[in-house]
Amino acid sequence: GEVPQPDITVVTDADDNCSVPVIAFVSDSSVGAIVSSTIINVTQMIIVGDTIDPTASNPSNINVQCIGDVPQPDISVVTDAADNCSVPVVAFVSDVSNGQTCLETITRTYSVTDDCNNSIMVTQMIIIEDTTSPIVLNDLSDIFEDCDNIPDPPTLQFDDCSTVQIIGDNPQVTNTFDGTDNDYEITWTWDFEDACGNPGQATQTVYVTTINTINLESDDKCYDDGTIDLFDYYYGTDMSGTWIVVSGDTTLNDEYFDPLDVELGDYVFSYTVANNGCIDTTEVTITINDDCIVEDCGRQDVEISNAVTPNGDQWNEYFEITGIEACGFVIEVKIFNRWGAMIYESSNYQNNWNGTASKASVGNADKIPNGTYYYILTLKNSGLKPFNGHIYVGTK
Predict the structure, then answer these.
(1) Which of 282, 277, 288 is nearest to 249 (CA)?
(2) Is the pLDDT of residue 115 over 70?
(3) In what side-by-side order are the strands of the sheet with 212-222?
(4) What CA–CA distance (Å, rounded) separates 103 from 154?
(5) Rounded to an integer, what distance in angstroms lies between the CA atom of residue 14 and that of residue 5?
(6) Which one, 217, 284, 299, 362, has the greatest CB density within 10 A?
(7) Residue 39's pLDDT is what?
């Protein structure tokens, strides 16, 4: 009856490495007849329960220019993950964008988990901000070309994070061509801007060598032929140019040249127009003569052969009437033998009779015998009386 009631306070030094142990009465056991000794068993319960989260810091922010520059997830950026009981595991969770295009933000999440599945999330901010002007990929070096081989402006290609828009003309063109044969420059300029408003400009210069294609025309005109339209010698379609006098003492009335009051001789005129960045020049040489003027021809001007000796020595080969070439007369010739028979006749004589018989003279011979013959020569529309006389013919 003296056995005390169970008392947990008798266990005074209970301890545990993780928590405060709980002491509880379990049972009493007797050993039978030995009443002078009592033995009990004490049982201690140790509960291990890790409920503490691991620790880690948010990785440093990343700033990039383009979406293509965003790096792949990398768990090594979480450098200070720790736990009170185990080595925590870092894993990539997700990337979430704010949906913007210029100054886009991506929130990248990593998990940190210990062996008891205690877990935390850390985040890394990726800031995408395009602040760089578009870069032109084309080779825009200076070009040196002749005027008939100027290339078209290139289509620009860009290295940029977003779509690039050309502002204004594509390209803007500055051309120093002045319509003369001076060399000149063409400058192409492009203004552009990307989707984030970053502006840019590019230029390319073409140094052009001018080619002047010269077309030569010539003509003979009598000073009394009337006013000459120089465009009659031009075969182009651009009538906006101006005719100029290159040589000769004269003046023009626009494209009209009046030769009536100029000296006889050559007059050179030039007409130059632009043709697709080159020069076309038509140069006209007009020779002014007096061939259209009929001189005041009289009997004293008429010279008539008095002998024909067609022997091949180039002297007196034909019966010739000269001195009236510019008079415009038509010559009518009749030649008779000494018996009065007409042996030759021409109504438009061309100084081409050399003793042949066109009418029977002596038998059927085609050459007349040597001897003296009689001619009658009429100059039609001259107002002059017919000429007549004798001519010696030596055909052998």
Answers:
(1) 288
(2) yes
(3) 212-222, 278-289, 265-275, 243-247
(4) 32
(5) 20
(6) 284
(7) 61
Length of the chain: 396
From the list 396, 385, 390, 387, the residue with the least C-alpha distance to 354 is 396
Please, are residues 202 and 189 in contact by the beta-carbon 8 Å criterion?
Answer: yes
- Give me the residue label for tokens 């001018």: 210
CB-count burial class (<10 Å; 0-12, 13-18, 19+) for 36 = exposed
**Secondary structure of 130-192 in the HEC alphabet?**
CCCCCEECCCCCCEEEEHHHCCCCCCCCEECCCCEEEEEEEEEEEECCCCCCCCEEEEEEEEE
Q: pLDDT tens digits for 285-336? A: 999 998 776 667 888 989 999 999 998 888 999 999 999 888 888 999 999 9
The token pair at 183 is: 């060399």
In tens, the pLDDT along 198-231 reads 999 999 999 999 999 999 999 999 998 899 999 9
